[in-house]
Amino acid sequence: MASHSLHSLALCFLFLSHGCFSQLLEQQQQQLRWHELRGAQQHRLRAKTDCQIQRINALEPDHRIEAEAGLTEIWDQNNNEELQCAGVAAVRHQIQPRGLLLPSYTNVPQIYYVIQGRGIQGTVISGCAETFESVSQTGGGREGGQRPRDRHQKIRQIRQGDVIALPAGVAHWAYNNGETPLVFVSLLDLANDANQLDLNFRKIYLAGNPLRRPQGGGRHEQEQHRRHSQAENAGNVFSGFDDQTLADIFNVDTETARRLQGQDDRRGNIVRVEREFGVISPQYQGEEEEREREERRRGNNGTTNGLEETLCTFRLKENIGDPSKADVYNPRGGRVSTLNSQNLPVLGWVRLSAERGVLYRDGLMAPLWNINAHSIIYILQGSGRLQIVGNSDNSAFDNHVREGQLIVVPQNFAVIKKASDQGLEWISFKTNGNAMTSQLAGRLSAIRNIPEEVLMNSYDISRDEARSLKYNREEVTVFGPGSRSQREREA
Amino acid sequence: MASHSLHSLALCFLFLSHGCFSQLLEQQQQQLRWHELRGAQQHRLRAKTDCQIQRINALEPDHRIEAEAGLTEIWDQNNNEELQCAGVAAVRHQIQPRGLLLPSYTNVPQIYYVIQGRGIQGTVISGCAETFESVSQTGGGREGGQRPRDRHQKIRQIRQGDVIALPAGVAHWAYNNGETPLVFVSLLDLANDANQLDLNFRKIYLAGNPLRRPQGGGRHEQEQHRRHSQAENAGNVFSGFDDQTLADIFNVDTETARRLQGQDDRRGNIVRVEREFGVISPQYQGEEEEREREERRRGNNGTTNGLEETLCTFRLKENIGDPSKADVYNPRGGRVSTLNSQNLPVLGWVRLSAERGVLYRDGLMAPLWNINAHSIIYILQGSGRLQIVGNSDNSAFDNHVREGQLIVVPQNFAVIKKASDQGLEWISFKTNGNAMTSQLAGRLSAIRNIPEEVLMNSYDISRDEARSLKYNREEVTVFGPGSRSQREREA
Amino acid sequence: MASHSLHSLALCFLFLSHGCFSQLLEQQQQQLRWHELRGAQQHRLRAKTDCQIQRINALEPDHRIEAEAGLTEIWDQNNNEELQCAGVAAVRHQIQPRGLLLPSYTNVPQIYYVIQGRGIQGTVISGCAETFESVSQTGGGREGGQRPRDRHQKIRQIRQGDVIALPAGVAHWAYNNGETPLVFVSLLDLANDANQLDLNFRKIYLAGNPLRRPQGGGRHEQEQHRRHSQAENAGNVFSGFDDQTLADIFNVDTETARRLQGQDDRRGNIVRVEREFGVISPQYQGEEEEREREERRRGNNGTTNGLEETLCTFRLKENIGDPSKADVYNPRGGRVSTLNSQNLPVLGWVRLSAERGVLYRDGLMAPLWNINAHSIIYILQGSGRLQIVGNSDNSAFDNHVREGQLIVVPQNFAVIKKASDQGLEWISFKTNGNAMTSQLAGRLSAIRNIPEEVLMNSYDISRDEARSLKYNREEVTVFGPGSRSQREREA
User: Fold this and answer.
1) Rounded to 5 degrees, what angle do the CA atoms A480, A486, A490 make?
2) Residues A156 and A317 sit within 8 Å (Cβ to Cβ)
């Protein structure tokens, strides 16, 4: 390995390809990932789905559900065979300032990406300690000091660029405490083995009346109701119990019990906070320290002793937006950052990972196939051209893509991304805690690893042509515009 | 954690809620379970099944098969969509005194609970040593001392309250050496990953003619035959081979080979022991020592070194009936005991666990949902009311349940149990070696872990009401009758 | 254990059964396998398939695809319900001398057995170092010394008797550098959890035009094309991209890019090497050292520290043909060799294992069932009679089998193999990295492990008869012809 890296380093000087040093890191990282693959193998277990995909589409949301203080859009696996094949669905939430997404849980694990804005998020894990205290702004006066502080579980600041993992069956809520809409897109992994039910997702709210929309009445409401019901499979868990039982259970009066059921609530699943809201959480920078603590706890080699690895202490989020954390950087092409079980261990548990990519004007991603995962790409910004090829002679997808679209690249299908002159940014969710790719071109490619004479005979080409295939692209993963197309551009 | 427990302890004194101390244990245990969840994750892998369940039923057995010395009743997954969704079936065996359940194996793992009686049970694991010797009562005289003792594998005493795990493909038999019927109920986990066949169970006997019923002849027999065949999918493995080959294989005469096939056997799958039966096993109390030995072997922290963890030495059973071993105890409400991979490691392997619950008169179980498992409840004694709610606004089940009924609570559905004035006892089988629940009320509940102000805005209630939701029930898991209903009762 | 082995040893002397000593090893090995079962449990995770199998057939290939320098035959899961139940397909490649099987990858793991001939094989794993150098025979002169040697990944010599594991999504190629055809049969494990697509296999070539056959034109070619397309689901990944993009990506001229797509290539998936082919690899004996190095790295106890266990250094092949490595040997009956995750760790990762068996004239394999795997038997040589029994009273298969046939034995079905007077040789592929069997007769059998009195009452036989069932066959796994049939033969 060491001598090999030196060799690559030598090539860096030799060919003066830009971005070469940063790409050496990628090579080492890829090797590390193979290291982990044996563990990752345990994480590839999914339900089998039907995959007779000849043609892939760039998908817009199928459903749109308005609430008092926000909007929920759903990519529905029942409407799109690409999603059905990958065994996933997706949701985009837009929460207005002072909007609260009601507490809910689902039967499948999720992975979120915060597209814009900031807010706070709470994950409610039964059995973990109530380690946070909030000083209620008015409580002290009212209560006379007996219980001046509210105790609850850890809550997290979230902001643009954050990736958040949510295990199946764990309740969570989110609140927009910023000035601009808080928008996030989340992948629901229906085929994940954590889901013991069928390949539908079920969202179960702990509050509100998620099936009702804000403005009352009429045929439109009923239609909305029906569509939401079908799309989100959502209900308030308390509404199915009778209020007498709930009053008994909580030891409260029947009126309060009825409030749990939210029968007359017309606000929908995202409500405007009217009552005082003083929940606070440590400032964002504090989390860096938390992460360092976690890493210290794990020791230097990243291994865990199993004892401290509890969901209560698991870090559930990590920011992937910061350019300085890129795993691959090519000043001529762009950059790629990866989150997997190695830098966010909970991803090994939910068996999902994420990749954030930025291509500059005319930049290219090396053609590659996903070895052990489906890849679900959400376009964050800009536009570009994607080509996806499976095992037929025709491409499954060859089209321009733009902000807000979702594209499924099934396992083993090969994909090329090319930015337009506006550049292209995306987040990819992958259905494996340690997703692996195999590149078809560039310094880490399959072609590079095959003996010249196998290439010569496979493609019926000369030794010189074989060498040009192997060595004309010294970059890794992210390519600058080809010198050929540069020539054309200049011509 | 320590300070949190102290805090809870303080609350115990403050609110004088009964059963408080014992419930602190539950809190710590729940945290321990989250500890294990990462490992448990590997145990959640199942086939996906169809789950369009709107209405759940309390199930009685679908088939009833009489044999010479006992009765077999079957809950058939093909007849009940609840069972189909959970990917399970269930069987209840009633073995009369001196009855022998013939050796058989199935393609799916099972977990048994002994409802009443006592007996001995043998598990036949290829490759493990024949570590037990039986002195045959008459053998010494007959054989002239050449082989005075019979060697065979370990056998186990079983008695009421025992839970027994049976890996897939492992043969076993059971004998009632008591004075009363030996009755046990077993869950067959069809969707378990250990089953590489389809979602049916197949029972393969090593003896007898399980498809024939005791009394000869007529249409009734044929019908019985057909029903058993459909219900148990059962055959004698030797009957499909020809007797010449069997004679060759065993190096015995053809007549003995034919006995293996049991062609003329009319006794069914549970036979009356007519020939001498001197099989003995160590006394029951001896097993406690075995367990302690096992625990010593594993060291103090419960971890295993992998080398001694063989199926040959695995403890396959544990008694869950003893009130002193309860994990949660509330003198006003009842008690709950749990068996999972932490106190019976083989359960991590078969990916099943069990919970035994006892509710006193009018006692309540906190509403909760199963995070990572289906729960299949078998009512052992008494009666009560169960409410089960999924993701629609209506309850999936709201009914009285009684002894002998089986109720499926699908993953993520919420359930409330309330005892009648006779009390309620049950055994729950769960489709995960480390089944986790999330409670909706009480000291370990989701509601308790959510900040007051999120509750206030979610339910549109005052701070005082939010606090009453969070703090009016200090109990955990098992609740006494609400003071409200007590008041009503007194009124 | 020690005393038990001594006991067995004593029996060896007592009964003078041939092959006794070598069989003691098998007993210990079986116990070791149970040791590993807990780990193996993680390897049993598969998609559920439909298994309403009443009758099993000995299968010949369904498709036959000719190429310039070889022949590909396919057992198609869509044509055979046995294969569908087991979730597998199979392929046999025959490569002529100087034939090159073009580089390709599939969406499922494979396990190969080399039936005859020898060659070299390359596995292309993204991210692993290019650790091999080839001196190109003519390159030095042409290039003027700048890059005299070709660098590429490790390549392997393969020869008759080798078993090779191929993880899903990993590209590979093979070349026949011998004088005789190189023939191998490979099992494709469609239901393996590494496959996140549906239960079809997709083969994706990196070169050529696999759908075209050598000789041009006409209706026959179209038919061939269609059949291959259906059977192999095969395409050239580059053909779906446009040549301009490929030229950009590889930074080569459009003509070379077009060669990647192989549009006018009529050679099929196995091509004749016309251009110089100087790829060399270390001599075969060198691999023994490699293996020893690997074992040293792992320490004495066979455990791995996880850090060095990377796919880059994984040993992917092992020879199973050498009689001296047999796990069970009975000079009267034959021998059996097993490869599983314990002697070829990558098999734990791909969750497949293999067994090679040789029965001498009239030899028998003990009746047994596969506890945790399907077994797919390919007959290598000779002929014999197989009996397979499931959970019905009739046999699912009772027929003569011969060279080149494939027979599926589903999980938990019992099987007896008996050689004809030509003897019988086979390779079995099993769908578990640690496949376990349970034998019905012989020294390690279920019958032997059951107390005499259970047998007496189960079969309604005398104590003497029970003892003859338990002790008349002291052999393990491989039996010589029964003394009964010997008597008959002599008569």
Assistant:
1) 150
2) yes
User: Distance (Å, rounded) from C-alpha C359 to C-alpha C328?
Assistant: 11
Please give the structure tokens belonging to residue C122: 């390359």
The single-letter DSSP state of residue B285 is T
CA B308 to chain A, closest CA, distance in angstroms equals: 20
Question: Does ipTM come in above 0.90?
Answer: no
Contact C462, C456 (CB under 8 A): yes
* DSSP annotation string for C160-220: TTEEEEE-TT-EEEEE--SSS-EEEEEEEETTBTT--S-SS--EEESSS-TTS-SS--HHH
DSSP H helical segments within B328-462, as ranges? Answer: 346-350, 446-449, 452-459
CA distances (Å), origin A200, targets A56, A87, B83, C50? 21, 9, 18, 22
Per-position pLDDT tens, chain B of length 491:
344 433 433 333 333 333 434 444 444 444 444 444 433 333 334 666 678 788 999 999 999 999 999 999 999 998 999 999 999 999 999 999 999 999 999 999 999 999 999 999 999 887 777 767 665 544 444 444 444 577 787 788 999 999 999 999 999 999 999 999 999 999 999 999 889 988 888 899 999 987 655 444 455 555 555 555 555 667 899 999 999 999 999 999 999 999 999 988 999 999 999 887 877 666 554 455 555 555 545 443 333 333 334 567 788 999 998 898 899 999 999 999 999 998 999 998 899 999 999 999 999 999 999 999 999 999 999 999 999 998 877 789 999 999 999 999 999 999 999 999 999 999 999 999 989 999 999 888 889 889 999 999 999 999 999 999 999 998 888 999 866 555 554 44
| Residues in CB range of B43: below 8 A, 6 or more apart | B341, B348, B351, B432, B433, B434
A469/A204 Cα distance (integer angstroms): 54
Interchain CB distance below 8 Å, C448 and B130: yes
Contact by Cβ (8 Å): B256, B250: yes
**What are the b/e assignments for A222-234, b being 16+ CB within 10 Å?**
eebbebbbebbbb
- A446:C124 CB<8 A: yes
Q: Chain C contact for A441, CB < 8 A?
A: yes
- The three-state secondary structure class of C354 is strand
CA distance A271 to A69: 5
Nearest to A229 by CA among A191, A202, A252: A202
User: Nearest CA of chain A to the CA of C260: how many Å?
Assistant: 6
> Can you spell out the DSSP letters for B357-386?
EEE-TT-EEEEEEESS--EEEEEEEEEEEE
Instruction: Give the contacts of A99 (CB within 8 A, at least 6 positions apart).
Output: A68, A69, A70, A175, A176, A182, A270, A271, A272, A273
Asked if A211 reaches chain B (Cβ–Cβ under 8 Å), the answer is yes
Cα of A201 to nearest chain B Cα, Å: 10
B337 vs B428: CA distance, rounded Å: 10
Phi/psi at A2 (nearest 5 deg)?
A: -60, -45
Answer yes or no: are the C-beta atoms of C270 and C102 closer than 8 Å: yes
C491 vs B: CB within 8 A: no
The verdict on a CB contact (< 8 Å) between B175 and C30 is no
CA separation for the pair C48, A392 (Å, rounded): 27
Structural contact between residues B333 and B362, judged by C-beta atoms closer than 8 angstroms:
no
Q: Bridge partners of C134?
A: C150
Tokens matching residue C271: 């091509």
Each residue of A439-468: b (16+ CB within 10 Å) or e?
bbbbbbbbbbbbbbbbbbbbbbbebebbbb
At residue B387, φ and ψ (nearest 5 deg) are -120, 130
A-chain CB neighbours of C315 within 8 Å are: none
- Give the chains touching C; criterion: ≥3 Cβ pairs < 8 Å: A, B
CA torsion A262-A266-A267-A273 (nearest 10°) is -70
